[in-house]
Amino acid sequence: MLDTLNLDTIDPNSRLPENEPMRQFVFMAKCREILREKEQRLGRPLKASLQAFGCQMSANDVQTLTGIAKQIGFEEADSEEADLVLYNTCTVRENANERIYGRLGHLHSLKKKNPDMVIAISGCMMQEETEIETIKKVYPFVDLVFGTHNVYKFAELLYTVWTTGKMVVDVWKDSPLIVENLPVQRKYPFKTGVNISFGCDNFCTYCIVPYVRGREKSRTPESILEEIRRHADSGAVEIMLLGQNVNSYGKGLETPCSFPELLRRVEEIDGIERIRFMTSHPKDLSDELIQVMKESDKIARHLHLPMQSGSTEILKKMNRRYTKEQYLELAGKVRREIPDMAITTDIIVGFPGETEEDFEDTMDVVRQVRFEGAFTFIYSRRTGTPAAKWEQVPQQVIQPRFDRLLKEVQTIAAEKCALGTGKVEKVLVESLDSHDEKMLSGRLSNNMMVHFPGPSCLIGQMVPVHITEAHGFYYIGEMWKGR
Ligand code: 5AD
Ligand code: SF4
User: Which pTM was predicted?
Assistant: First the structure.
């Protein structure tokens, strides 16, 4: 299939098949024909720059979009001076949107120098009608706008842009369709993300994701396992299973399969040595899942368990469906059952109605659980969500709370990090160290970064490393030769 897809065997003028992705393969062949004409006219290859903003799922969509662009014949550009620039956007917080608009002005000046340039904006931000209107009115030089449900149609949409010369906007509210077997260009040959479910049904009252990503739908275990086997056959040793709420995986499948069951089946795949997953909702984290993690040699010792707030009152207003005590109980259970499991979290400061006492509850959970790491966010008011209509906490109250929380989180994380020295652990080597080319950088099972001296031929391999120094949020080590 993908690795064997040969577009040259597809006649670009053949009748369009009804089924996906076959229909898209014909559009890829059509685009390739146009691209070749353009290359001849310009006397140079066409280059593309595709960038992901936001979460792992956005990064994963960009791997698919890059796979399609590569099939069409684009070379990878090392800057935005390219013939195709695509931003796959995030909209979870307001400042993500502002960042995109800030960059569009720069793209406009590049397009004036290269009229052949195609500017495409996709992803979560484009699922909002007001943002599409803004693009149409303020940024009419954008050529293509699409959303999260029709990533698979990229070749067809690009074909329409190239053949009409007009702005193409194609955004769907939701879609039951999951198109399998699209080309994928992995950023790293040795590790990749694999979507297991899309969308979210939880409707936390601050969060825009359920509105932009639509209802939760799961891929079948068979298609997930087949994709992972393919990745393993082509050299992947680590995979990250992705979903807005992986713990509720399997809802709506014809043949039921729970997330722990899926993990057990993924574990059996030869070649895969490390399994990560993201994101776990505390309300759905079962004892069975803890058991599967405990018994597994492959599941990484890292659990990302967003708590959002430590106050039961605020958690209720957030519609998180657990209390402070339940969160503490759950984190405690994980710590007891799997003592070497790193627990990280997401925390929002300044949710509407948050009092000093509520905030102290958050600080209390942070001190009790002692997270290995935490992403801290200032509450961002997202139009269309229930909490946007509630009375907001003033910025001058939020900022000092945020600063206090960040300090506490960082102090604890550094203390936890220090406990790792002296151990010998497996590191998946990812790259040369960006500061020192004689050093390699990689990650431990618990997701901590380690830098150690070694040759570049180890990139992509699991190497035992003796951890010698802790530096707050990363380690220095040396290769372990065994004694
Ligand atoms: N404001 C601030 N943070 C938010 N998140 C989601 N929505 C908002 C918002 N409106 C955070 C949550 C979530 C993470 C991905 O982003 O903590 O877990
Ligand atoms: Fe947003 Fe809550 Fe769904 Fe996470 S679980 S994506 S925070 S609505």
Answer: 0.94
